[in-house]
Amino acid sequence: MNKYVVKFKPDGKIINVEEGKTIAESADMAGITIDSPCGGKGTCGKCVVIIHADNLEPPSEAEERFLTEDELKEGYRLACQTHVTCDMEVTVPQDSRIRSIKILSAGKGREVRLHPNISKIYVELPEQTLERQIADLTNIKEALKPNFTNVTIDLRLLRKLPYILRKSKFKVTLVLDGNEIIGIEPGDTTKKNYGVAIDIGTTTVVSTVVDLNTGSDLAVASALNTQATHGADVVSRINFTIENENGLEELGDRVTQVINQITEYACAEARVDTQNVYEVTVVGNTTMTHLFLKVPVRNLAIMPYVGVFSDPVETNAGRIGLNVNPNANVFVLPNIAGFVGADTVGVILASALNRSETIKLAIDIGTNGEDF
User: How many domains does the chain have?
Assistant: First the structure.
């Protein structure tokens, strides 16, 4: 298949694109996000670009509907409708780009009693002798009594255990998620105990780094949800997964990449090593949490609009591709019903609405809004 050179202005980005790709797809490859609320169906007319080329295909019906005859003569086209058929230069006007969005990064707080799932315990273990031939893991379990019983450990970590213990001269910090050992670190690292809170919005994704020892927010970072390339609303994205064989995988990968980027940035701001992040809590509407976990969303678009899960979901960071400690616990809050998801649960918990003795109203103003 032929490839052509596409240059994007004013960005100055030049890429090689296979013949037949749309300008919108090409822009996405170049890292340029064009506004496409309709998800590339040609029904919104928002993705206007200016193309300079010698061999442009004739305009589509959608382009003739949204653009005047003079605009078409001047090279104005819709990025989702026009295909790459030759070398071309494409100007993406500011009005056709998804604008950066400011997020609320501070607000009124309230006191809560800290009880994190993650515990870091420093121990100095007695070395084994002929008189005390105790296995390494048993040695650790004995040191954790009586506060921790029925302690478990992942097989991958168990394989590293003898090397870590002897390299650190049996002075280690144990990282526990409940009663499961998810990390063993040389020396005393008990002060380095961090978590990340993720809010996956339809438009914006936010990552907050939290000190699990103090409960303090250390840094916040946000970015646009790049799933928006395939539609501004949840229904467009659901349709994308239905109409494209790898659509679910792509949308899941997109939001994971955004989460990794902003989490790495926030950790750098807070001077936190991402390997010291042991807990990730995730909220979002029902569609967003399903897409994050790459769980099919088809039935959310069909009456009676049901998701695959409504209970909390737990997994680990390594399994889902998050760039924090691979054994970090990832906890996705429960959905309620239909499109009312974990983001609403997060609002209720953060505001203590569930404990109020009087009637209160919470309003969530976003791409999708809820009153409750």
Answer: 3
- If asked whether residues 75 and 127 sit together in one domain, one would say no
User: Do 209 and 358 share a structural domain?
Assistant: yes
Give 231's pLDDT tier (boundaries 50, 70, 90): confident
Cα angle 324, 319, 253; round to 5: 80
Query: Does the CA dihedral 279-285-286-287 come out positive or negative?
Result: negative
**Domain encompassing residue 160:** 118-186
Assess whether the previous peptide bond of 312 is cis (omega < 30° from 0).
no
pTM (two decimals): 0.82
Same domain, 278 and 352: yes
Nearest to 123 by CA among 148, 106, 101, 99: 148
Rounded Cα distance, 250 and 237, in Å: 11
d(CA 75, CA 51): 5
Quote the DSSP letter at residue 96.
Answer: G
**Could you tell me the CATH number of the domain that includes residue 167?**
3.10.20.880
Residue 39 has a CB neighbour count (10 Å cut-off) of 24
Q: What is the pLDDT of residue 260?
A: 97
What is the C-alpha separation between 23 and 12, in angstroms, rounded?
A: 15
